[in-house]
Design a protein that fits this description.
Layout lengths: L8 H8 L5 H11 L35 H6 L6 E2 L11 H4 L3 E4 L13 E8 L6 H7 L8 E8 L2 E2 L7 E2 L5
Parallel strand pairs: 1-2
Antiparallel strand pairs: 2-3, 3-4, 5-6
Length: 171
C-alpha cells in the first residue's frame, strides 16, 4: 500500500477510495522505518487470538502513539532492564519515555540485543498523541490509562540472505 504514490493523497484516494488521514501516514511511515504490523493477519488461526497490542498502538490499528516495542526497535527510548525483584516506579511512556524490560531467560537475565525475546512493561497514559483517540474509544479518562505487559519476540529470521525479517509474527 505504501509507496511513492501514497503521498499523492488525491491520486491514492481516487485509486483506492480509502480515506487517508494522519494516522494512516504515521502507520505507513512506521513501515518505511521497518516496523511490522502488530495486528494478526490470520483471524482463523488455531490459537484463536487477535495478536498485537489489543489495538492500542500505532502499528496495531493506527491507534495513538507508537508503543514501547517500536520505540525500542527505533532506538527512540532506552529501556530499563529489571534484573532483580523489588519495588519499581513506572512513569508514563508518553510523558517520560520509560519502559521496563525483563528477559525471558532467567539464566541470562540481561538485555544483550533488541532482537530477542523479552517482556516489556509500560504505563499507558492517554495524553500527548493518545489524547484525542481516548475520547473516541473510552468513556472516562480513568479507562484510558493502565499498565501494559507485553511479550515481545523480535528474534530475526536470517534464513533468506536477501531479506531479513522477524522470525515470528502475531499468530
Amino acid at each position: 500500500f505504501m509507496g511513492y504514490e501514497f503521498f499523492d493523497f488525491e491520486l491514492e484516494h481516487k485509486r483506492t477510495k480509502i480515506k487517508i488521514n494522519c494516522e494512516t501516514v504515521i502507520h505507513e511511515t512506521g513501515h518505511l522505518l521497518n516496523l511490522p504490523d502488530y495486528y494478526d493477519y490470520d483471524d482463523k488461526d488455531i490459537y484463536n487470538n487477535d495478536g498485537g497490542y489489543c489495538s492500542v498502538d500505532m502499528m496495531d490499528h493506527n491507534f495513538g502513539d507508537h508503543g514501547p516495542v517500536s520505540k525500542i526497535l527505533l532506538n527512540w527510548i532506552d529501556p530499563v532492564l529489571i534484573q532483580e525483584s523489588g519495588i519499581y516506579q513506572l512513569p508514563s511512556l508518553t510523558q517520560d519515555g520509560i519502559a521496563f524490560v525483563i528477559s525471558t531467560n532467567p539464566k541470562r537475565n540481561k538485555f544483550d540485543s533488541i532482537f530477542d525475546e523479552y517482556y516489556v512493561i509500560d504505563y499507558v497514559t492517554f495524553d500527548g498523541l493518545n489524547a484525542l483517540q481516548c475520547k473516541d474509544f473510552f468513556k472516562t479518562e480513568d479507562d484510558c490509562a493502565g499498565v501494559r505487559v507485553s511479550l515481545a519476540n523480535t528474534t530475526l529470521d536470517k534464513s533468506n540472505p536477501d531479506y531479513i525479517d522477524f522470525k515470528y509474527n502475531n499468530t
